[in-house]
Hints:
The chain is an alpha+beta fold. The chain is 44% helix and 14% strand.
Amino acid sequence: MSYPEFREALQRDETSFRFLPLYAKLPVIRRLPxxxxxxxxxxxxxxxxxxxxVELGRHQVEEAVRSYLAGAANDPATKGTxxxxxxxxxxxxxxxxxxxxxxxLLSPGKGVFLEGWAAFLTYWSRSDRTIPLLAxxxxxxxxxxxxxxPGRSVLQCQIEATSCTAEHANLQLR
Length: 174
């Protein structure tokens, strides 16, 4: 998995989707277009997707977020302002549990969070000691969801179908 932030902690705690608690799986399921918990008939298809669930210190995550916000802010009018405090003031509070806290989904590319800004701001505002984070191998996850047969992606099936058709055409030409 390629996550620029928190790389060392994520690699140390890498596991598979099967071992995540349900409260950590739900944010992933909600990200899938057209999928709901009840619409995935075979959970075992997602079992081996690589994930990393970590709870890092609030200050470590805050530092990464502040760094990201400082780099994203190109407006000279906002220079010198606390971008994190401004963001928190503009976002309505979210009621989140103190135990079994849903993780913030990390962004595999640019940015910090793919989803979970509201959760992060809630944890940050109430001064939680740690912030739960989840990194997901999205490419594998979507590949598994589009498999026609176990272990074969749609692309593999299309390539095999194309090569079989080409092979059949070559046989007919001979």
